[in-house]
Design brief:
heterotetramer; A alpha/beta (about 425); B alpha/beta (about 425); C alpha/beta (about 400); D alpha/beta (about 280); B: about 425 residues; alpha/beta; Rossmann fold; 4-stranded parallel β-sheet; 17 helices; 10 strands; about 50% helix; disordered N terminus; disordered C terminus; C: about 400 residues; about 10% strand; globular; binds adenosine-5'-diphosphate; binds iron/sulfur cluster
């Protein structure tokens, strides 16, 4: 089948959207860009294809119903668990390869044991992390494994009397290698099959037989997906191994993507990892005006990343924590690098963590408001896209401020909006061939 | 305003003439001491070139030096030098380039050192920074400094009080100081003669600028425009040379119109005219060529710009230097310079240019250095958009500080803008944005 | 009952924090037909506004706590903050009760703001208030007197009432009194800086921006009485003059931080309008001519003014240091403030010649992080303290 | 004899020292440092202080003056506070009496300080609010590259073909670096590139203070980073600057040393003036 793919190579995450001839979105993929860009593009494409396999699988089953929804959910979850375990095993193996470094000579054995212990415990937790209904702290292996490692590692290091700094160092070295491996199709197929078996075991009174499901998945996996046209966009677009005509500016892609999702959109705000853009589009999705931060990444998504690192929690946890605030601490500096210091400062002054977090979120949104006002204000309808749109504390502030300053405008915030740029890209890809 | 930047490719007689004029002027300046000529430093907006000529003095314009250094990519280092010596990174880079140039020996483009000025003629017109700039230069040169304070046209008109104030300063402050510095007695008939010359050249200049109303426009009134305004804005207004230059130029433009040709660019004739723009704000000098290329590569011609009015507005309300009212007309000239006009007037001017030149829209090049131009431009942009219904775009660069020219950013913005204009023209119909 | 320092300061703080100008609104509503004329730094002849029966209202931006949402749509990032927060005040209707705005000639930013106002508020009285940079009676003096006459006529048209010479002369007397009191507070602080912390004096002067002048004069009197009576510990601080903050005001925390870091501020250039005229203006004769003469010959020096004599440039700062027995100068200017930042190298040069130590930094009205400020002011104080004793 | 302590609360690390001073002769009795990570710096200050005292075999009562510096204005058991530039200047003179300028590079801030032979601050320049090119940044990158702190210097010095880091902003620079990894630039060349860009900024600061020749002491944690020191040396040479750059093994303690010594100085001064009651 023909497929059209848009890849948005962002500064922190890389997203892909895969659509078919009828512009139906079959799959989406996301990965961490914090590694090799080519790899990130490959991985996210692979992820989008996985998503597409899910869609195709469902089509193959040709049936609707709660049980099928369940099955697919479980399949997804189990597939992620499979992935996680595979990567964890890889990480464990990779890290043992680094123990020969002369720096660790005197501690090699103890270090190896301690690391094994940490990975073993993380492995145990994996089932919980991917348990039904569990809140996942991040979508990325690096983040989840990293934060678990920090938490468990210090304790283990103490017990085993090895230096935690050393353990951390081995981890840091290994994670890059692990991240840079692209799962091949056969691995993915194997993981999917394994996940299917686990999933079927878990869903009660499924009205498809295991065999039928298996056949359907097989078929879905066998469908040839031809990369008919690919469009790349985003911060890293110049690094994509694509010819020039396959590359679009992220401004155009975000404008078009938002238009495709919400045809009535006139103003788009995108807060990404290191840039914040305010875009005005006309009724056809054409960009009329835009503003973005230049040179300074203050108040962008990475800001939250630094805060999360500083507090040693997952990105997904920040929003919910900030929602528990009773007041909003006033934060003036949104320099990303100083974020940690600002947080510490405020904590030292005796302010509550939740209140500070609420203040930090407000600061980000205020900065976005200023970019929006420079881009010509907020018009009806207003669409908020980018990774930060997933953060409820940020969206709450945004809704409030938009309402206060621009009155009643329809505000579109979609959990999937991180894919807006990629969607715009895929739409461009489709147009390039089909128009 | 520089001769060299576009010399190589196609040399029309007017270009050669201008090159020669500028070279001669620098030679005159750098050998002023040997020739026994006194020099005056002064600014472009509100410059009193005819008056300076009355005292047989040569005219040195620090802004032009900064531009020259910007185009030769020397300004970056000079600015850093000035910042190191205690000047803030926040202030106008012309000032810092000038101060940095002094610390590097004050070398003129012809390779010889500039003489220290014999007098600083501070025409405080349209920009606050001028005042501080000359206070700073005075610290350096310790030479006589005379200030001509030109009040701001805050309500869009020249009041008698303003005019009297300026004329009185000319009579009681400026002229006596120049007499003393030069040892030459002021002769008002000489001034009248020069003003008559000015008016002649000004007629031709306006004709050239307005030729952009043709389609295709035979000239580019921003990138090309900075060359066209060179003589009249600098050391040549009032001279025979200037008259001749503008006659040559006019003839060339007449020929281009007859041949249906577009403007000349550094890479030859411009091909197809796709977009007609009005531009507000000075250009960036450190990447002047690259900046220009982003326009002509896309088929964009600037049909009118406000920058070509900084040293005098001759088209909008038809001002000409007037030999019959010499001092009053100098006062009106100073009062009427573009940045000395209030924002509503600037908006009106730009909106009228868009209409009269049938432009597709307005582009603002906002300059970090220059509050005089930049403070308020965002509001101006919206007002002009509203009045004309034409789209506007906003880019941010700097004059001579290479650190503030981000080519990728500017290009990104221009490309989107051109696409937008395209779409508007098509009536926003099809959605093929790529 | 006599007021305590705390009471007075609290009231000033309330006035300072109130970006809705409740007090001034109340004044206006108290009698029908009252008008309020806003003005921006550095100087306008408030006497004429007062004589017209109107309230001169000093607008000094939005301060540290106002969240600027719309202001950025008007100003690029490389322009100082005061115009954008002032626009924000206007866009959010906080200035809707102000009948006219004056934009004194201080720099191109304020100048162009006058144009923005003309376009945005077409029904309001807007005046760019030009002052001469030529200081000869017959030239600059005449020009300025005529400007003031035009202004006077403008206000007359606005109120529909003539402003008599007598009224202006009376107002001059009222402002003479106010200036005397302002100077007394400054002198008192310089004499006994531990009794009058700079942030208190600052708030007291800020109150003069929004209160009727008579009330402000009384308030300063009360403050002096209370502060003299109060027992406060003398700290081991050095004495500094603060310069460069004549337009956009620093956050209050900065003033506090400087003092906390070991510097007593013994003079500053906050709100120069309070003490722009250095001598009493005569209260009889042609008031306009008198005001013009006072401006031309006896007005405060600052970066916004041209110094015709190169020799004299900046000497006033050295003199101020001497007069106040200061041990150093802190240049604190708003980021992107052309007048202050362009003047600084020249002033610094004079201090260097005179052997006065100085440091300099920039701020914005909403600067949050005070740590770098404390550190610089603190190091400055340390070095004055350690070395003046050691050597 | 005067016993004094110096406590330097940084943004990354808390440092403490104890000194005894007698007739102008000083003796370093104890030292301790604590990485802050996510702990309360004041708590750590107590800990580190206690640690120093026990090394020196002293009790709290034996100490006549506890001087804080850095972010330590609010340390409850302090006698007085000196600001960082004052103490780093003194610390530098202690380590190298020849020092005439100090470059203090810590976790977040960088400062260049011009001093005289007595450690008096003559002029200074600080990095502004913007945190690019700070220790924190370097630390993040190193972690990203999987390099331990003590490996940085050595690796960087092997960088033959350093890759320029363009961005002014630390965050954007981080992306730059990640970009380099994907272009297979070696960690050595990346680190060297970062060091050169940091050195460039620091030299700019240094020049802006008016420092010309003589010895420039690096203080603060990053002075331990031999890669940065070597990039500084090369940078100075490239710009034909004659000043000599030097790091020191105790540079991390410079602020705490300076605080203790100034504390002792102040104590003696106040004692001689008989105003001791006021100071404590
Ligand atoms: N689930 C989430 N909750 C909160 N914030 C998130 C979440 N996912 C991503 N983000 C934020 O979004 C940012 C990445 O946004 P993205 O649009 O992908 O940026 P880019 O395209 O620049 O990589 C991250 O830096 C992070 O702060
Ligand atoms: N051996 C080392 N090599 C490189 N960097 C180091 C070393 N030791 C400490 N640092 C760095 O020094 C920084 C702390 O320096 P310090 O001067 O104590 O800063 P602060 O006073 O701001 O806490 C840390 O960010 C750390 O990265
Ligand atoms: S501020 Fe603008 S007008 Fe003034 S000197 Fe600089 S560039 Fe020229
Ligand atoms: S702060 Fe400075 S630049 Fe800004 S408006 Fe005031 S005087 Fe002008
Ligand atoms: S380091 Fe902070 S302030 Fe500096 S550019 Fe980056 S985000 Fe902005």
């Amino acid at each position: 089948m023909k497929t059209f793919i848009g890849i948005d190579l962002g500064s922190t995450t890389t997203k892909a959207v895969l659509m078919d001839e009828n512009r139906e979105i079959l799959g989406k993929g996301i990965t961490n860009s914090r590694s090799n860009y080519d790899v990130a593009a490959e991985v996210t494409k692979q992820e989008a294809k996985v998503g597409a396999r899910f869609s195709l699988f469902r089509k193959q089953l040709g049936e609707d119903g709660d049980d099928i929804d369940h099955l697919l959910e479980d399949l997804e979850r189990n597939f992620r668990l499979e992935q996680f375990l595979t990567e964890l095993a890889d990480l464990r193996e990779t890290s043992s390869g680094f123990l020969d470094n002369p720096r660790f000579a005197d501690q090699k054995k103890a270090l190896g044991e301690a690391l094994d212990e940490v990975f073993r415990r993380i492995g145990e937790e994996a089932i919980e992390i991917y348990a039904p209904g569990a809140e996942r702290k991040s979508d990325f292996f690096r983040d989840i494994a990293g934060s678990r490692f920090m938490n468990i590692g210090e304790a283990v290091a103490k017990e085993a009397s090895v230096e935690f700094d050393h353990m951390l160092n081995v981890y840091d070295k290994s994670i890059i290698d692990v991240e840079n491996r692209i799962p091949d199709d056969s691995t993915v197929s194997r993981q999917l099959m394994a996940a299917l078996h686990r999933a079927i075991a878990a869903v009660d009174d499924l009205h498809v037989s295991e065999k039928d499901a298996e056949t359907a998945l097989r078929k879905a996996l066998d469908i040839e997906m031809e990369e008919t046209y690919l469009v790349g966009t985003g911060y890293g677009r110049v690094r994509l191994p694509f010819p020039k005509e396959h590359i679009r500016s992220e401004i155009l892609c975000h404008g078009l993507g938002a238009h495709v999702m919400y045809p009535e959109t006139r103003t788009v705000l995108d807060i990404g990892g290191q840039d914040t853009k305010g875009i005005q589009v006309d009724p056809a999705g054409i960009v009329e005006n835009f503003q973005m931060n230049d040179r300074c990444a203050a108040g962008c998504g990475r800001y939250l990343g630094y805060i999360a690192d500083e507090m040693n929690v997952g990105l997904h946890e920040l929003g919910p924590m900030a929602m528990k605030a009773t007041k909003t601490t006033r934060i003036n500096s949104t320099c990303t690098v100083f974020a940690g210091a600002e947080l510490r400062d405020r904590l030292a002054l005796g302010e509550r963590r939740e209140d500070i977090l609420a203040g930090l979120h407000r600061a980000i949104i205020l900065r976005a408001m200023s970019i929006l006002s420079r881009a010509g204000g907020v018009k009806d309808q207003f669409t908020f896209t980018g990774g930060v749109a997933k953060n409820e504390a940020a969206t709450k502030e945004l809704r409030k401020l938009v309402q206060e300053n621009y009155g009643d405008v329809t505000i579109n915030i979609n959990p999937e909006s991180i894919y807006t740029g990629a969607l715009g890209g895929a739409t461009f890809a489709h147009r390039a061939v089909m128009n | 305003m520089s001769a060299e930047a576009k010399s190589e490719v196609i040399k029309e007689p007017s270009m050669l003439k201008q090159k020669e004029m500028i070279a001669n002027n620098y030679d005159k300046l750098t050998s002023a001491h040997e020739l026994g000529i006194k020099t005056a430093s002064t600014f472009v907006p509100g410059n009193l070139n005819e008056l300076i000529m009355c005292f047989d003095m040569a005219n040195n314009l620090p802004e032009i030096n900064a531009i020259q250094n910007g185009m030769r990519k020397k300004s970056g280092g000079m600015i850093m030098d000035a910042e190191r010596s205690g000047h803030s990174e926040d202030v106008c880079t012309y000032v810092k380039a000038d101060i940095g140039m002094m610390s590097k020996g004050n070398i003129a483009p012809n390779g010889k050192p500039m003489p220290a000025p014999d007098v600083l003629l501070l025409s405080y017109t349209g920009c606050f920074t001028f005042m501080k700039w000359f206070e700073l230069l005075r610290e350096e040169y310790k030479c006589p400094t005379t200030m001509l304070h030109v009040p701001y046209e805050a309500d869009g008109k020249i009041t008698p009080n303003m005019r009297d104030y300026v004329v009185k300063q000319l009579k009681e402050e400026v002229i006596p100081t120049l007499e003393q510095a030069s040892g030459v007695k002021f002769d008002i008939d000489r001034l009248r003669e020069y003003l008559r010359n000015s008016a002649k050249a000004e007629d031709d200049l306006v004709w050239v600028l307005e030729s952009a109303k043709n389609k295709p426009s035979p000239v580019d009134c921003y990138f090309g425009g900075v060359y066209y305004i060179g003589p009249i804005f600098t050391a040549f207004r009032g001279t025979e040379d200037a008259i001749e230059y503008y006659q040559l130029l006019r003839k060339e433009v007449e020929e281009r119109i007859a041949a249906g040709k577009g403007p000349i660019t550094p890479e030859g004739e411009m091909k197809e005219e796709k977009y007609r723009l009005v531009v507000e704000g000075p250009p960036n000098w450190t990447s002047f060529r690259d900046f220009w290329k982003m326009f002509y590569d896309e088929g964009a011609v600037v049909v009118s710009s406000s920058y070509t009015k900084v040293g005098g507005v001759y088209d909008y309300d038809g001002f000409r230097h007037d030999p019959d009212n010499p001092l009053e007309s100098l006062a009106d000239y100073c009062l009427g310079c573009y940045t000395n006009r209030n924002l509503p007037t600037r908006v009106d001017m730009l909106a009228r240019y868009i209409e009269e030149y049938e432009a597709d829209g307005l582009l603002i090049n906002s300059i970090k250095s220059c509050n005089s131009f930049s403070a308020g431009q965002l509001m101006m942009m919206r007002e002009v958009e509203e009045r004309t219904g034409k789209p506007a775009a906003f880019i941010e660069t700097d004059l001579v500080d290479p650190r503030y020219f981000s080519a990728a950013n500017v290009k990104n913005r221009l490309e989107s803008y051109f696409q937008m204009v395209d779409q508007k023209r098509k009536g926003g119909g099809s959605a093929a944005a790529a | 009952m006599a007021k305590t320092v705390q009471e007075i300061t609290d009231r000033c703080q309330v006035l300072f924090d109130d970006i809705d100008f409740t007090e001034s609104r109340k004044w206006k509503e108290a009698e029908p037909g009252r008008k309020v004329i806003g003005y921006m730094p550095v100087y306008v002849p408030r006497e004429i506004i007062h004589a017209a029966g109107m309230l001169p209202l000093g607008i000094l931006g939005g301060g540290a706590d106002m969240e600027v949402i719309h202001g950025d749509a008007y100003y690029q990032s490389y322009i100082c903050r005061i115009p954008r927060s002032t626009i924000e005040l206007a866009v959010t209707k906080r200035l809707d009760f102000v009948d006219g705005m004056l934009f004194p000639s201080i720099c191109d930013v304020i100048r162009n703001l006058s144009g923005i106002w003309q376009m945005m508020f077409k029904d309001k009285y807007v005046r760019y208030f030009d002052v001469p940079q030529n200081f000869k009676d017959g030239i600059g003096g005449t020009f300025y007197a005529n400007e003031m006459r035009e202004f006077r006529e403008g206000l007359e048209r606005l109120s529909g009432r003539k402003i008599t010479d007598e009224a202006i002369n009376n107002s001059i007397a009222v402002f003479n009194e106010n200036r005397r009191m302002v100077n007394e507070v400054y002198d008192f602080r310089s004499e006994t800086p531990w009794k009058a912390p700079s942030w208190e004096v600052y708030l007291l002067m800020r109150a003069g921006m929004v209160l009727p002048v008579e009330e402000h004069t009384q308030m300063m009197q009360d403050y002096l009485d209370a502060a003299k009576a109060e027992d406060r510990p003398l700290r081991d601080n050095c004495r500094i003059v603060l310069n460069g903050s004549f337009c956009e005001q620093p956050p209050l925390n900065m003033v506090k931080s400087i003092e906390m870091a070991g510097c007593y501020v013994v003079d500053d250039d906050f709100m120069l309008v309070n003490r722009w005229l250095l001598e009493d203006v005569p209260t009889s004769g042609d008031p306009i001519a008198n005001l013009a003469t006072a401006f031309i010959h006896h007005s405060e020096d600052t970066a916004a003014k041209y110094e015709p004599d190169g020799e004299k440039k900046g000497r006033w700062l050295v003199q101020k240091v001497k007069d106040r027995r200061a041990e150093g100068v802190i240049f604190a200017a708003p980021s992107f403030c052309d007048p202050a930042l362009l003047d600084r190298p020249m002033l610094a040069g004079r201090l260097k010649e005179a052997g006065v130590p100085y440091i300099s930094f920039k701020y914005a009205e909403n600067s949050g992080q005070m740590q770098p400020i404390r550190e610089q002011a603190g190091t400055f104080a340390d070095s004055i303290k350690l070395w003046s004793e050691a050597s | 004899m005067t016993i004094s302590a110096g406590i330097d609360i940084g943004s990354g690390v808390v440092k403490a020292t104890v000194f005894s001073v007698e007739n102008g002769k000083d003796q370093w009795l104890g030292r301790a440092d604590r990485r802050i990570r996510q702990r309360d710096p004041f708590q750590l200050a107590e800990e580190a202080y206690e640690d120093c005292l026990s090394q020196a075999g002293l009790k709290r009562d034996d100490v006549q003056y506890v001087a804080t510096t850095g972010e330590g204005e609010n340390v409850t058991f302090a006698t007085g506070h000196f600001y960082s530039m004052t103490t780093h200047a003194r610390g530098a003179i202690y380590m190298e009496p020849e020092a005439r300028a100090v470059l203090d590079v810590g976790a977040l801030n960088g400062r260049a300080i011009l001093i005289d032979e007595r450690g008096k601050v003559l002029s200074y320049r600080m990095t502004s609010q913007c945190a690019s090119g700070s220790g924190q940044f370097l630390e993040n990158i190193a972690r990203y590259l999987g390099i331990a702190q003590d490996e940085i210097g050595q690796l960087s010095r092997q960088g033959e073909d350093p890759e320029k880091v363009s961005g002014i902003c630390a965050v954007l620079a981080e992306t730059d670096v990640i970009n380099m990894v994907s272009r297979n630039i070696s960690p050595s060349n990346i680190l060297r590139g970062i060091h050169e860009s940091m050195a460039g900024r620091l030299i700019k600061l240094l020049k802006a203070t008016g420092a010309k020749d003589g010895l420039v002491m690096m203080t603060g944690g990053l002075a331990l980073d031999s890669g940065l020191v070597s990039a500084m040396e090369d940078g100075m040479k490239e710009q034909n600057l004659t000043a000599e750059i030097r790091g020191h093994k105790d540079s991390l303690y410079a602020g705490a040393i300076g605080a203790a010594l100034w504390g002792a100085f102040r104590y003696e001064k106040l004692e001689s003036l008989g105003v001791l009651a006021k100071a404590s």
